[in-house]
Amino acid sequence: MTIAEVSRKYDISQDTLRYYERIGLIPRVRRNKSGIRDYSEEDCYWVYFSKCMRSAGLSIEALIEYVSLVQEGDGTMQERKKLLIEQRKLLKSRIEEMQATLDRLDGKIARYEERLLKVEQQCPVG
Amino acid sequence: MTIAEVSRKYDISQDTLRYYERIGLIPRVRRNKSGIRDYSEEDCYWVYFSKCMRSAGLSIEALIEYVSLVQEGDGTMQERKKLLIEQRKLLKSRIEEMQATLDRLDGKIARYEERLLKVEQQCPVG
DNA sequence: TTACCACCTAGAGTGTACTCCAAGTCAATA
DNA sequence: TATTGACTTGGAGTACACTCTAGGTGGTAA
Known about the structure:
The structure is a homodimer. Helices cover about 75% and strands about 0% of the residues of chain A. The first copy, chain A, is mostly helical. In chain A, helix 4 packs antiparallel against helix 5. The longest helix of chain A is centred in the last third of the chain and has 46 residues. The termini of chain A are far apart. The first copy, chain A, binds a DNA duplex through helix 2.
């Protein structure tokens, strides 16, 4: 797969794909004889994984660390698992915090509903 | 309340508090005779509200808009409610997306658990 | 009355995460 | 064989959200 195809498929700009590879957020992609990136299925998986994790708010730093552990081989499995558990914990607490904010927002909206209803009752024609 | 107290109370730097006021993310705070900010209870509420909403990922742009509608008075209630509902929707879908990523992460962690268990069984001493 | 400290403002600087650019390569087409 | 277009690289530029700085004011304590 070319970079153009991957870019379209995952809606990530070519520049960002190259940038992610440059900083190690995804492993280095194989080039063909003329130096052009040829994304394998696994490369695509990495692109997708990084996209998900990044948009969920995982730090670039942690993801780079994870990629490099994977590349070091099976000896790092324990460490990788630990890293993922740590990130999972962070993500979970972010979600909980956001859920609490959502609830506040719901409360606020409900209060607007009430107040607007009152205004309506006072001026039934307006 | 002085800016130092508010800064401590909500764990937001004084610079950021001044910045938020400057860009209209919170309404202008009253100054005393010598020009020093004196945060009222309501100001503190705004600081807290902005902090919550910002850390949940609401855009600065939307929050500035909300603040300015509140300052325009009761005539904007309908519009404010609409804005909050819109932001609520965005927040909800972000939470759902993050929840999906959390689930993926759980699956990944579970697979590491399995693989590590297998390795252990193969080398029960190691 | 001078030293100090917390505060003020406007504007410049910074870090992160991209995003763009210049100069060049390669394969395919006119 | 000349042009086109998608790609390459390294490095420069940008946007956002702060964060810091310089120069100044006002109130308090030695």
